[in-house]
Amino acid sequence: MTRTVTTDEVIALTDKYVMRTYKRLPIVFARGEGCRLWDADGREYLDFLAGIAVNSLGHCHPAVVKSVCEQTAGLMHVSNVFHIEQQAVLAEMLVRQTYGLAKAFFCNSGAEANEAAIKLARKYSWMRYGEDRYEIVTAEQSFHGRTLATITATGQPKYQRGFEPLPEGFRYVPFNDLAAAKAAVSDKACAIMLEPVQGEGGVYPATQDYLRGIYELCRERGLLLILDEVQTGIGRTGRFYAYQNFDGVKPDIITLAKALGGGISIGAMMATDEAAKGFEPGNHASTFGGNPVACAAGIAVVRTMVDERIPERAMEMGEYLRGKLAEMADRRRSVVDIRGLGLMAGVELSVDAGRVGELALERGLIVNSIAGRVLRLLPPLIVGKPEIDEAVEIIDYAIGEVEA
Ligand SMILES: Cc1ncc(COP(=O)(O)O)c(C=O)c1O
User: Which CATH number characterizes residue 378's domain?
Assistant: First the structure.
């Protein structure tokens, strides 16, 4: 695309006219392909952030571009007053991958998908047990989005401060602590809501025993199990949905967004037939949710993921990545822990992870740091061994510089 403004002008315009909700780095990207991005001056970057787990098929995947372009030329938007072909097709494709969930509601983002899940859990419980059961148990260090209900579900006070009064009805428990979850379930509880791998909280995978125990607790106490798969879903953890890594865990509701549109905004909340009974026409809606263009992108993403067995590839490359990081940890004393599942990896450091990220960026690698101590690696799932080698070499160099 022809540029009409320089990088400095973009930064100045942003500072002047865009609300200050982000701390932005002074880079303007002009083009992306596969695992690579190019800035406006033609400098190349290796992308191990993928738009925070969005560009899972890499930048501008040809199948997604084709599907979106064709759909855009034919029909861009119609209201949910009508049946929408692409929405129906995508819903069936997503359901087929779940073995157990039966229905999808489409929206535009992760926060909206979680908002829908919270509403469905409350409404189902209200319908089935009456008005006194509305509490949702969530985990400390979780992240579920930025709407009022989802910052309240998020077990991190820093996202809530200043936005009080918050909606009632959320209780927080330490993650991976089954006894704490059991103790927190009161007669008022209607659901437990968790991420299978906590992403923003520092890349902490749930343990098999914990998630299975939570599932059993939900069955015993008549609670809905809501799994937030906004970051983990659509292949990232080596299975199509992350919960499929855990034996005997069957969620009642899951939420998706990020990778589902391959770069086009779309979210989804999926539920079992039973839980979905909580919503009747008029209970929930979204003007753009399930829009033909967003769903055309989703269809291309899901088809490519399944046909090209991308989740299996993510599992294999994730193991290779963690192996390389472990070799690096033998040399670097500041590496405290390496964790993750599939191609969602966290490297906990005893030195400033933010500074490591800055030095990596100077060498052309995009990685994310969380809370100043964890490097989060979320490469496109199409990443290969040479790119992983290149990334780990740069991270190794950057950690070495900060250690020195
Ligand atoms: C687990 C999880 N849930 C929800 C969200 C919110 O998604 P969105 O920013 O699309 O609203 C995020 C975003 O990072 C997330 O990681």
Answer: 3.90.1150.10
